[in-house]
Amino acid sequence: MQQQLDREWELTIGPDTVRLFIEKAKAISAAVNEDYADGSEHEVELDGNSRDNHHHDGLVEEQTDNLTAEELRQLIDDLNVDEAAELIALMWIGRGDYGADEWNEAVNEARQRGNRRTSKYLLGMPLLGDWLEEGLEALGA
């Protein structure tokens, strides 16, 4: 069983907010996994040998997925500098780049790297939801 660390830190970003991000990130990831599971995403076989890419830009299902991603992007973009740094640090801890005992170091590193592309950086990670969840668990939050 994982033991909780003595808290020598306080989260600026609320754990419930991070859980909302986790939920949205997992929804995005699930949608991507369903679309791309067979490795021939959006391809239509015309005859036995040729294929054509088939895109459904106007379908409601894809707009819903895009809205989820856009919502998460907007939520991340609305974070202040400290909250954004903590979100990145949580992801790094969950991914194993830092241990929970290196929280302050991870936050400082994230703050130094901080820029306006935080949402693009985080949304580019297919396991974002899992890593954020593991980061929260590692910190006992």
From TrEMBL:
It comes from the Bacteria. Pfam families: DUF3775. This is DUF3775 domain-containing protein. It comes from Mesorhizobium alhagi CCNWXJ12-2.
